[in-house]
Amino acid sequence: MQNLANALSWTNLHFLLQGFWVTIEVSVISIILSFIFGLILGVLRYTRVDETTTAISRVVGVIVDILRNLPLLLIIFFSYFGLPVMGIRVDAFQASVIAMVVFESAMIAEVVRSGINSVDPGQMEGARSNGMTYVQAMVHVVMPQALTRMIPALLSQFVSLIKDTSLATIIVLPELLYHAEIIYNQNTNYMIPMYLTVAVMYFIICFVLSTFANYLSKRIKY
Q: For residue 213, how many other CB atoms are within 10 A of its CB?
């Protein structure tokens, strides 16, 4: 109990919260950017109106499939070590965001494509028959319906993204888990208390998002 009390001193908790804030920053920025890019890629992946859009769809499909089947850790390593070799200088924070956005955009693109596919094709046909262009029909008719069906899957993907930020410890991103490692490296008796505390912090934020996803899912079904 004494080790637990010492491990969870205000100084250590404050240090952990600093790392937790970095985790939140990386997560929020990555969620926003990956949703935007994932939405664009998902629509391009779905759209096959003519030969040009069909070709774009196939190219995007290949890129998305490649990214989805790569380990996230490999993408993190490439962002941190590979980009500087190519003349693009990034720090650990920027490399983490880039890796998360690239990987999650590919995952979200498939969620978006599936969501659009779940909408009755008659919705698009009806909108086009009423004089709407393809873009207008997609924006005003299909996407609103698709997005409501995507919400649970999207929020589940965002929960996974938050947990995946812990992988950035490998490139010395000063996030939650990295700060915990610094603390227990100074005193190995703090290892278990630190891991338990980190687990509780991750659980809180992921549980809140998961609960919100379940709530939205029930509201949509209702």
A: 19
Helix 10-46 / helix 143-164 crossing angle, nearest 10 deg: 140
Q: Residues 195, 9: contact at Cβ < 8 Å?
A: no
**CB 194, CB 7: distance < 8 Å:** yes
Give the DSSP H/E element, type plus range, for residue 46: helix 10-46
Q: What string of DSSP letters covers 131-193?
A: T--HHHHIIIIIHHHHHHHHHHHHHHHHHHHHHHGGGGGGGT--SHHHHHHHHHHH-GGGHHH
Separation CA 96–CA 101 (nearest Å): 8
**Within a 13 Å sphere around the CA of 151, how many CA atoms are in the beta-carbon half?**
17
**Are the C-beta atoms of 47 and 112 separated by less than 8 Å?**
no
Task: Retrieve residue 205's tokens.
Answer: 């934020």
* Average pLDDT over the chain, rounded to an integer: 86
Which residues, at least 6 apart from 138, have a Cβ–Cβ distance to it below 8 Å?
43, 47, 124
Angstrom distance (rounded) from CA 197 to CA 203: 10
Nearest to 5 by CA among 202, 178, 187: 187
Per-residue pLDDT of 114-132, as tens digits, reads 888 888 888 888 888 888 8
CA distance 215 to 89: 42
